[in-house]
Amino acid sequence: MFTYQIKKLFISLVLIECFCFYFISQSKEGDSISEKTEKIVKYYPTGEKMAEGQKKGNKLVGKWVVWWKNGNISRIVNYDEEGEYHGEQLFFAPDGRFVMKIYYIHGKKVSEEDFKKYEKDQKNNLNLQK
Question: Global pTM?
Answer without folding.
Answer: 0.70
